[in-house]
TrEMBL record:
Pfam families: ANAPC10. The gene is ANAPC10_1. Belongs to the APC10 family. Component of the anaphase promoting complex/cyclosome (APC/C), a cell cycle-regulated E3 ubiquitin-protein ligase complex that controls progression through mitosis and the G1 phase of the cell cycle. This is Anaphase-promoting complex subunit 10.
């Protein structure tokens, strides 16, 4: 099943961080910029959606080659309606990642999750690092075909024009 990034088609999420004003670094599509945590572990990135949203995949751009001990190792994903009722839906361990790490939320739940709040928790880093770097975050919803996509052509003239040769 194809996925669609929520930043392109869905509701905008409000991002909450330990350091105010850093959310644009996670969404600028530039892998040379990064968000750096500050404070004690675990570190959190919390996304709050204005309406009930289906989420299929969370993708993080991590770069062990550049960040070394700042690279997240153990990640957990929490989902819920508010920050008060979050439940752990996925735990994942990375091994010196360079590039996109895709966390599929549908495997354990037989489909996408419906949520208002999504929290990415960084439990530990490589080489026992304290603070972490996350270069990009993308959240993907399942692809829903438009009603027009399901129309079947019946006339020969339309059938001939429905495909590219």
């Amino acid at each position: 099943m194809a996925a669609t990034t929520l930043s392109e088609t869905g509701p905008a999420a409000a991002l909450h961080f330990e350091i105010p004003g850093c959310s644009e670094l996670l969404r600028d599509n530039d892998p040379t910029t990064f968000w750096q945590s500050d404070g004690t572990q675990p570190h959190f990135i919390t996304l709050q959606f204005p309406q009930l949203t289906e989420v299929q995949t969370v993708a993080l751009y991590l770069d062990y080659q550049q960040d070394e001990s700042y690279t997240p190792k153990d990640l957990s994903i929490y989902a819920g309606h508010t920050t008060a009722d979050l439940q752990k839906v996925l735990a994942y361990e990375t091994e010196e990642p360079t590039g996109w790490v895709q966390l599929d939320l549908t495997e354990a739940h037989q489909g996408p999750l419906s949520l208002f709040t999504l929290r990415i928790m960084i439990c530990s880093n490589h080489q026992f690092g304290k603070d972490c770097h996350v270069r990009q975050v993308k959240v993907f919803a399942p692809h829903r075909p438009l009603a027009l996509d399901q129309l079947r052509y019946t006339s020969l003239e339309f059938k001939m024009a429905s495909q590219i040769r």
